[in-house]
Amino acid sequence: MELRLQESYRTCRRMQRRHDPTYYCATRLLARDVQPAVHALYGFVRGADEIVDGPRRLPPGGPRRAALDAWEAELERGLAAGRSEHPVIAALVDAGPRHGLPLDLLPRYIDSMRVDCDEPVRIASRAQLDDYMEGSAATVGRIMAPLLGAPEPEAVARLGVAFQLTNFIRDVGLDWRLDRVYLPGHLAQHDAPAVARGGQRRRQGDGRLAHAALAGDEGQLNAVEDAHPSPRGTT
What we know:
Layout (H helix, E strand, L loop, with lengths): L2 H17 L1 H7 L7 H19 L8 H20 L5 H13 L6 H10 L5 E2 L3 H23 L4 H18 L1 H6 L2 E2 L4 H13 L4 H13 L2 H10 L8
Parallel strand pairs: 1-2
């Protein structure tokens, strides 16, 4: 492997270590020969995430979409040429054929990220939520499957969706403060503001509320609300 390509992989490794040390430590438990490819895939996904979520993200709408489109175009040029001047793309387009990764799935990932280019984000139905997670977590799971030695890519995709849904439930308040609601139904209507403002006394009920919202169980929602009343309107 040429020195420049080695440095590209090192750039991706540093990105993962800096932005996600837990995931970095998990990656270090994989076989040594697949670790650089995981770093490279992380680098691409992180690049998209920084565009839509990073502290230096552009204003929502057109500017943010243009930046994401440029990132996708950089990938397309790299895949077509088999190389790239961008270190993250260079590492990824090398890792793809080296490990048999289905990188042709990545446009589906970018499609989900486009949802986050707009503000506010309101996912209004379970079907929309499933479509978002299918493009994001499930897509990354399918690409990761060969690196994990998993014979069934769909099993890895479903695991990724489970992790992402757990994160959405955990981050209801944080996402609301970013003017984003990923969980559909009743939670989007009346619980997310309470979670964002309610503090410690809401934590016990958050997960149950999210589960009830996803299930469309209004009776359970009301019961949890009674046990953990919303602080709205209180002083």
